[in-house]
Automatic annotation (TrEMBL):
Gene3D superfamilies: DNA helicase RuvA subunit, C-terminal domain, Vaccinia Virus protein VP39. It comes from Eutreptiella gymnastica. Residues 174-247 form the Methyltransferase small domain. This is peptide chain release factor N(5)-glutamine methyltransferase. One of its GO terms (biological process) is methylation. InterPro entries: DNA_methylase_N6_adenine_CS, HemK-like, N5-glutamine_MTase, RF_methyltr_PrmC, SAM-dependent_MTases_sf, Small_mtfrase_dom. The lineage of its organism: Eukaryota, Discoba, Euglenozoa, Euglenida, Spirocuta.
Length: 338
């Protein structure tokens, strides 16, 4: 799993910054070369130099991110970076110029995922830009939990069931506050053909990214624009609702890692003064949006577990209302069954 800073809580890339450092593009150490003479710098040297440049902020993750960034600048896949033949290849002037441009952006604090415009998530690859949050490993884990649970429990997802059996029956899933569409699109790829997925978000720019990602990953999903459940008709119901809403309070927002706070979309991060505003709405609206025995999976902040669970339990008599932890052992998910 690619390391990247969490939205809030748990292991994060340490980043202590004052004013942005001047973006310097050079090859550190005795191997430095003058790029006005092409063909003197090898890929392996560039990776080492990049790791040195990233280490103050990326710590023990610097080597990984150096390979990732250089792969982007070379136009190769990450799995090619371990090839001895590639590492001994000389860097072209054009490749070095792209590296300097990218490193300058990194040294301003911009997340590398935005620089390369691509993130791997649950066997899919997603385009990302500053209109959407960068998908995180903890969100990937929530999706994995959801897929395993509905595959095990829902009759339409059992082996041998097709879209025609019973006639017209569909498993309906909604990705609400979808952003890049990572949850809904990866879900569609993972479930049988008789799955209907709707992505919804209030931000039209985010939906443009989600639309591009549905094409990139060759899945057929429906996209709707609006606030929370507003894009859905009153009579519509889902078998599964996935929601990773804004959950950061205004006070906590000021304490976020600068690479998150200064670059990722504030509207997708901040819920309001308490950080619970979306969960208060979900507690009231979710029961009427799920089919009987339907499931909902919600991502939460690591200090919000008991409070969000209490909101859900006080609003409706759920068959299941469970609090689950992420891989760091922190409260991260609410799992509901109607």
């Amino acid at each position: 799993v690619r390391p990247r800073p969490m939205r809030w809580g748990g292991p994060m890339r340490v980043s202590v910054r004052g004013p942005p450092r001047m973006a310097m593009c050079s090859v550190a150490g005795p191997s430095a070369v003058d790029m006005s003479s092409p063909g003197q710098l090898r890929v392996g040297q560039l990776v080492q130099s990049c790791a040195t440049a990233l280490r103050p902020d990326y710590k023990d993750q610097a080597a990984f991110w150096a390979r990732y960034l250089v792969a982007h600048c070379l136009g190769v896949k990450m799995n090619q970076m371990n090839s001895p033949d590639l590492r001994s290849t000389f860097v072209t002037k054009a490749q070095y110029a792209e590296y300097c441009r990218a490193l300058a952006e990194v040294q301003k604090g911009r997340p590398i995922d935005y620089i390369v415009s691509s993130v791997d998530f649950y066997d899919c690859t997603f385009t990302v830009n500053e209109s959407v949050l960068i998908p995180r490993p903890e969100t990937e884990l929530m999706l994995d939990m959801a897929i395993k649970q509905v595959k095990q429990q829902h009759p339409l997802l059992q082996p041998g069931v097709t879209a025609d059996e019973p006639v017209g029956a569909k498993f309906v899933a909604w990705d609400v506050c979808c952003g890049s569409g990572c949850l809904g699109i990866a879900l569609k790829r993972a479930l049988p053909l008789n799955t209907e997925v709707v992505l919804a978000d209030i931000c039209s720019d985010a939906l443009k990214v989600a639309q591009a990602n549905s094409v990139r990953n060759a899945v057929d999903v429906e996209l709707r624009c609006g606030d929370l459940f507003a894009p859905f008709e009153a009579a519509e119901r889902a078998d599964l609702i996935l929601c990773n809403p804004p959950y950061i309070s205004l006070a906590d927002f000021a304490e976020l890692d600068p690479s998150v706070r200064d670059f990722e979309p504030t509207k997708a991060l901040v819920s309001g003064p308490s950080g619970l505003e979306f969960y208060e709405r979900l507690a009231q609206e979710l029961p009427g949006r799920l089919k009987d025995a339907g499931h909902a999976f919600l991502e939460i902040g690591h200090q919000q577990g008991p409070e969000v669970q209490g909101l859900m339990q006080s609003a409706f008599s759920w068959q299941t209302c469970e609090l689950h932890k992420d891989l760091a052992g922190l409260d991260r998910y609410i799992v509901l069954q109607k």
